[in-house]
Amino acid sequence: MASITLEKVSVSFPVYSSATRSIKNRLIQSATGGQIRSESGSDRISVVQALQDINLQLESGDRIGLVGHNGAGKTTLLRVLGGIYEPNEGRVAVDGSTVPLFDISLGMDPESTGYENIILRGLYLGLSRSQMRGRLDEIADFTELGDFLNLPIRTYSAGMRMRLAFAVSTSVAPDILLIDEGIGAGDAAFLQKASERLKLFTEQVSIIVLSSHSEELIKRMCNKALLMEHGRVVGSGSTQDVLTQYRQRQEGGGSVEISAPLPLEIASKPATPSDPSAWAMETARFLREGRWDAVDVDRLVEEVVSLVDPDPDRDLIEGQLTYLLVQLLIWHWRESERSGLRRETIDQVRHQTELMIREDKNVVDAAEKSLESAYKKARSTAAQRMDIEESQLPAKCPVTLPLLLDRTWFPGQAAADDAVASRRAADA
Amino acid sequence: MTSNTVNVQSPLLQQLSHGLEPEQLKKAWRDIFEGWRRRELWATLGLHDIRQRYRRSTLGPFWITISMGVMVFALGLLYGQIFGQELHDYLPFLAAGFVIWGLVSAMILGGCTTFISAEGMIRQLNAPVSIYAYREVWTAVIAFAHNIWIFVAVAWWYDVDLSWNALWILPAVAILLINGFWMALFFGLLSARFRDVPLIIGSIVQVLFFLTPVIWRPEMLPDRALLLELNPFYHMVEILRAPMLGHTPSLSNWLAVLLIAVVGWGVTLFFYSAYRWRIAYWV
């Protein structure tokens, strides 16, 4: 469960000119201190108060839009949330893995190939090299860059670099995602594909904080918003309200009065049933008040049962199986796609899955149980990826778990097809 | 509440008092520790730094080796003549000295740009900032690994007797790296705030090259031992050069280098705890 708490956070910025950065001037200043002070006042270094007295409480499910004009402190706030700036006053508590997505082309090495850069960006995001290798194929598929991935990216066009950066940045979902401005991406067809992926990606993130000047983007992505002005939060609430408030203030011109920061009333929004934490708090309140009629008993029972039968690995193993099945389906149905790289990926995923299974008997059961649902997902993904109808692929999973994890087996080879046939016969 | 009145008066005092809070030391340790755990990242970045420097040249990083080789042979022949030294003694001595000097000076000079050159990444990436110090040290180590072959070739040609003293090479390299790491953190921090520091350090290192027995032998300076003993670079070069040439390293050299490490780390930890959190604002 991710959360962010800011209490009375203030950030001030020294503005250094070359004069204050040079030791000579510092030495002269201390030697002739009084004089210079009398000339330029007591603050020899000008300090900009970038954030003042910010109080925030963000919970899972929050999608916060930061609104305000340039210099209002939006980017500074994002950097504080990302742990890049440590405030000089106040307390910041961030629970959950955080990825700041400010400049998605950050740190690309022009001399390295596309594949190397995919791995490099993964390292930036805090993943290990081997974790990245497991994802390489999926990311490479998404970029549609094909053989270009073997060339140094200095040969790429700006659009191609963007695709690459975007594909990697959205391959791992963190708990908390911080986005500065909109993420633009190349051509229209890619943009369509990108927005789907962005949607899938953002659905997995528990908290998103997005700073943008685009009202449309904020409306589409966020359910709450903060209005910032001169380093303070001057308004908060639903997206619509805050955007209206922002527009009014803009029309009011420069003479906007800065009111005291309003307390952020996020909990006052009616709880949506899909938000688990809000639902839990609400149910707890009903129970305490003895209002059984208001409690969603079925869901409560389900939640309580899930407490004694935790299946934490199930999602993980299912994701792993799904990925493996997608790769194998493509392998089977597209002979042109049988590259050495794909073979390596399949091998790698099999190996990882085997390791997971070997460690724990429960995982084997989980894997057996989730095989069908994994196949269902894989079937639709693979059909989409290969641009064919789902009905062209077998409706039920055609392989057993041991065969799926057999590292010598690749579908479409004679021996393998025999194995499937004999299994079908046995089933019949 | 008393600190509040101070805060209003001076933002600089306010920063310092925030930096001196006890938890900052813990955070500094965690930063260094977490930085080590991200070694796949900084190792890759360091490798890219070297590759970037020699990109698209046919020989690539082996230019490091070649330029070192040319330097050692040219200066070896010249100064061997000037000082009247036997080449089979002097050339291995010079090659070892140059290679070690290369490592130490690269760690200091590179250390000055630790945070300045990573400006973009520091402001965008929520990684521990110590990774940039590891990266500079690692870059210096890669260059060292290219240079060392000049010494190996010279030592092999002149048949330098290695003996068991060669075992001292590893701990010597280790202690040099430990020292290099605090230098990268400390000078990096200082340079990020005061942009003159890299230039000052640059000229100091240049002068120290001539004051340190790399080209000349310590024995050539009989009466000015103080000039040697007070030069930290002398000790750092000597603890590694002695075992490379098959001699036993002297206790005083080792003690001096250990002292530099302890004092250096003490000072660095203090400043790093107090000002690490300001780096993102400075760059």
TrEMBL record, chain A:
Keywords associated with the record: ATP-binding, Hydrolase, Nucleotide-binding, Transport
Enzyme superclass (EC): hydrolase
Highest taxon in the source lineage: Bacteria
Presence of the UniProt keyword Ligase in the record: no
Keyword Ribonucleoprotein: no
Domain named ABC transporter: residues: 36-255
Any single GO CC term annotated in Swiss-Prot or TrEMBL for this entry: membrane
Entries under SUPFAM superfamilies matching the protein: P-loop containing nucleoside triphosphate hydrolases (SSF52540)
InterPro entries: AAA+_ATPase (IPR003593), ABC_transporter-like_ATP-bd (IPR003439), ABC_transporter-like_CS (IPR017871), ABC_transpr_TagH-like (IPR015860), Bact_Polysacc_Export_ATP-bd (IPR050683), P-loop_NTPase (IPR027417)
GO MF annotation terms: ABC-type transporter activity; ATP binding; ATP hydrolysis activity
EC number: 3.6.3.40
A Pfam family recorded for this sequence: DUF29
Family the UniProt entry places it in: Belongs to the ABC transporter superfamily.
Protein name: Teichoic-acid-transporting ATPase
UniProtKB/TrEMBL annotation, chain B:
Signal peptide: none
UniProt keyword Membrane, yes or no: yes
Segments traversing the membrane: 61-84, 90-116, 137-158, 164-190, 197-216, 254-275
Molecular-function GO term, any one: ABC-type transporter activity
Subcellular location(s) of the protein: Cell membrane
Residues of the ABC-2 type transporter transmembrane domain: 45-244
Pfam families in the cross-refs: ABC2_membrane (PF01061)
One example of a Gene Ontology biological process annotation: polysaccharide transport
Membrane topology listed for this record: Multi-pass membrane protein
Predominant place of localization: membrane
GO terms for cellular component: plasma membrane
Keywords: Cell membrane, Membrane, Polysaccharide transport, Sugar transport, Transmembrane, Transmembrane helix, Transport
Superkingdom field: Bacteria
PANTHER family in the record: CAPSULE POLYSACCHARIDE EXPORT INNER-MEMBRANE PROTEIN CTRC, INNER MEMBRANE TRANSPORT PERMEASE
The protein's name: ABC-2 type transporter
Organism per entry: Thiocapsa marina 5811
